């Protein structure tokens, strides 16, 4: 069950991006308060992640999807800055390789799932197959599929496959939480201009980024349908306002902390026989030190 949030996408299949805000609410805390709250969440997450790692029974999969310049990379970096690197991994999914195209579209995702005790982050994900590929169906050519004349049935089938796959993961110990970082078209333009204005940010810019703006409405429709079709209690979506980065990061971190708390990871208790061994080793080491 997703944790309560004003940004939780409902599970009833009714959601549209245009009804979801890109800006914080009028009563949102200021930037300083957001950063303070983020710091507190990071500290709590570090403690919870340590218990998750020690317990070694559950995994957490975090999915990030967004339009370009929404802040996925910086949000991942900010919210996981206190997490032990041994306990989490990030995978960024770009265009599929030839090897990936020789398999079904979920194949490369399965290879990157977090092990028990770990947190896994997908920076873009299987949802590219019902977002980018839907807006640019020419990408289907490389998948060598027998396509229906009406592609709407293909997207419906993929939503079903995604729901089934995510349901399978949760039944086998992986908690899933998904974030759509919802940036406005105007704010995206401002961030693109900043990338062009500062030489140290030029590497982040691609002409393809601007070209995709021509398809903005199609992308928003694709996001609306994908989130409505796949936000479920066992794999919830959160549409987070992304025009204000400190607010966005605070919201994401808060949801992650509350999700981990709901998972309730516990440090394992040693059996009495092993505890006795530990006590004996403790006494021996104390004796050596007092020597």
Remind me, CATH topology? Rossmann fold
Care to count the β-strands? 5
Give the uncertain stretches in residue-range form.
Answer: none
CATH homologous superfamily grouping: P-loop containing nucleotide triphosphate hydrolases
* SSE order, one letter for each helix or strand: HEHEHHEHHEHHHEHH
Helix content: 40-55%
What sort of overall outline do the alpha carbons produce when their principal axes are compared? Answer: globular
Give the CATH level 1 class.
Alpha Beta
User: How many independent structural domains?
Assistant: 1
How many whole angstroms does the radius of gyration measure? 22 Å
Biggest sheet overview: 5 strands, parallel
Instruction: Give me the side-by-side strand order of the main sheet.
Output: 2-3-1-4-5
Amino- and carboxy-terminal Cα gap = 56 Å
Question: What is the number of helices?
Answer: 11
Examine the secondary-structure arrangement and name the CATH architecture: 3-Layer(aba) Sandwich
């Amino acid at each position: 069950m997703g944790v309560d949030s004003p940004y939780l996408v409902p599970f009833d299949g009714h959601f549209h991006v245009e009804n979801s805000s890109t800006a914080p609410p009028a009563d949102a805390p200021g930037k300083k308060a957001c950063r303070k709250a983020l710091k507190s969440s990071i500290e709590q997450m570090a403690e919870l992640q340590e218990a998750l790692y020690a317990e070694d029974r559950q995994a957490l999969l975090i999915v990030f999807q967004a339009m370009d310049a929404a802040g996925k990379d910086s949000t991942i970096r900010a919210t996981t800055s206190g997490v032990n690197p041994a306990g989490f991994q990030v995978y960024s999914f770009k265009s599929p390789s030839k090897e990936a195209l020789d398999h079904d579209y979920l194949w490369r995702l399965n290879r990157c799932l977090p092990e028990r005790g770990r947190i896994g982050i997908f920076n873009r994900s299987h949802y590219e197959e019902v977002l980018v590929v839907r807006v640019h169906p020419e990408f289907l050519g490389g998948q060598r599929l027998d396509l229906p004349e009406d592609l709407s049935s293909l997207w419906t089938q993929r939503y079903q496959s995604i729901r089934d796959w995510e349901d399978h993961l949760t039944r086998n110990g992986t908690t899933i939480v998904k974030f759509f970082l919802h940036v406005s078209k105007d704010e995206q333009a401002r961030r693109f201009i900043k990338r062009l204005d500062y030489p140290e940010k030029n590497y982040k810019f691609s002409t393809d980024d601007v070209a995709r703006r021509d398809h903005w409405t199609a992308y928003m429709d694709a996001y609306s349908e994908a989130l409505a079709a796949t936000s479920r209690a066992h794999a919830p979506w959160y549409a987070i306002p992304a025009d204000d980065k400190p607010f966005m990061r605070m919201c994401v971190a808060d949801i992650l902390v509350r999700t981990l708390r709901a998972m309730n990871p516990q440090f394992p208790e040693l059996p009495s026989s092993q505890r006795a061994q530990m006590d004996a080793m403790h006494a021996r080491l104390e004796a050596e030190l007092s020597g």
